[in-house]
Amino acid sequence: MLSSSSPYVYSFALFLSLFLLFTLAPQFLPPREQQSPVPLQDELDDLHLFHQATVASSGKISHLGFTNPKPKIAFLFLTNSDLVFAPLWELFFQGHYQFYNIYIHADPSSKVSPPNWAISANFIPAIKTERASPSLISAARRLFARAIIDDPLNLYFALVSQHCIPLHSFQYIYKSLIGNPATAVRAFLTQPSHPSFIEILSDEPTLESRYIARGKEVMLPEVSFEQFRVGSQFFILSKRHALLVLKERKLWRKFRLPCLDIDSCYPEEHYFPTLLSMADPEGCSHYTLTRVNWTDSVGGHPHTYHAPEVSPELIHNLRESNSRYSYFFARKFSRDTLAPLMKIADSVIFRD
């Protein structure tokens, strides 16, 4: 027979259960604001596309009938807004159509208007992208795959955003990356003489919080904390590394998982540096060629340059680096900088 105090016991037990539920649940359940997972159909479509790219790359360039093959740089624009700086990029590319290709992944939910370019550009089939989500990794991989399938002479792949501008002439960047076109094709095919230019950091102050953003042990055993790396969202990959990214499956299964701590989760800044650091650290520069000013960042976004800041001095300062290369590109620039940038394009930006 229950004592008269039983109702109090039940009430206390119920109160304790509710307290524990509301206290501990956030540690085990994802918050409402977590990113959406990559849809299964998108995954399947991507796997098919990546397989096509791998097969397409298996043939030697020397077997394709080129009498004087010229290596090309594939410029990959990853955007969710209009390409405001298209006029500046058009000047950059002008007269060099044999040495580049342009591919654009435009978020279909953002109503991006095709730029009125005289130069040829390829808008590839795109998916919706979210900031700080694995969808940005998928978009970059899709750009690599389309570029590899489209032209076997694409040997370098420069990932840039709609807010990026060039800091040098096309000739300067091409010569710096490719070297002698007559010997570069064979070098790309036979030896790893052309590195990828990607930032790979192991001492970033927020490294631990980024590593456990999906949970304390979720990344194990594929990626230990000692193997985890971070870096810039934008980079330049050689063809062998672009193919490595398309063939990779094991790490992707971890980095595609939604994050519990969205304030520390930037999959696109983690996946590529970690993968390349694990697979071929000697074949990477460990620094980026895209200049970004983080001195007064807001909400995870870098400093945005506005029209009054544009000057020859700014361009010269943005080029300066501590590596053997000058910076090639810079971000982040607002819409109102296009006019002043165009005014100094020929006299400053494209005069190396």
TrEMBL record:
GO molecular function: glycosyltransferase activity
Entry protein name: Uncharacterized protein
Topology class, membrane: Single-pass type II membrane protein
Keyword line: Glycoprotein, Glycosyltransferase, Membrane, Signal, Transferase
Coiled-coil positions: none
Localisation per UniProt entry: Membrane
Cellular compartments per GO CC: membrane
Species of the source: Rubroshorea leprosula
Main localisation: membrane
InterPro entries hit by this protein: BC10-like, Glyco_trans_14
Segments crossing the lipid bilayer: none
